[in-house]
Write a structure and sequence with these properties.
The chain is α/β, with parallel strands linked by helices. It is 29% helix and 14% strand.
Length: 125
């Protein structure tokens, strides 16, 4: 049996961004796209000064407690990719793999935009 796939959207987006991928891949795989806390249909449950690690823990809980998936492949776009990378560091043995889309180990964002880097904000310079 193939590993389930979980899609994580970027900042300010929602699970709906993955609707075409979910529709197509659902023909052959178990696929889920989740809303991050405070995005889409999911209420905000995180602190005001949220970090990527906070999001990674929340996504881990969603996958474990709500979706009840084992060894999922995590697909992350932008912030979702940073969350996926953090999940690999924190919960690597629980993951089936990573697919990163338009992301990196350090995201460059506009000044005054929350980055989750622990400081809350990062200059784009």
């Amino acid at each position: 049996m193939s590993k389930p796939i979980v899609f994580i959207h970027g900042s300010g987006d929602s699970a709906r961004i993955w609707r075409l991928q979910v529709e197509e891949l659902s023909k052959d795989y178990q696929v889920s796209a989740i809303d991050l806390p405070g995005h889409g249909q999911r209420p905000d449950s995180l602190p005001i000064e949220v970090t990527v690690l906070d999001y990674a823990r929340a996504v881990h809980d969603i996958i474990r407690d709500e979706l009840r998936l084992d060894q999922p492949i995590i697909v992350g776009h932008s912030l979702g990719g940073a969350i996926a990378l953090t999940m690999a560091l924190e919960y690597g043995s629980e993951l089936g793999g990573l697919i990163l889309v338009g992301t990196g180990s350090r995201l460059r964002v506009l000044k005054g935009t929350p980055t989750g880097d622990g400081n809350g904000y990062q200059s784009s310079q």
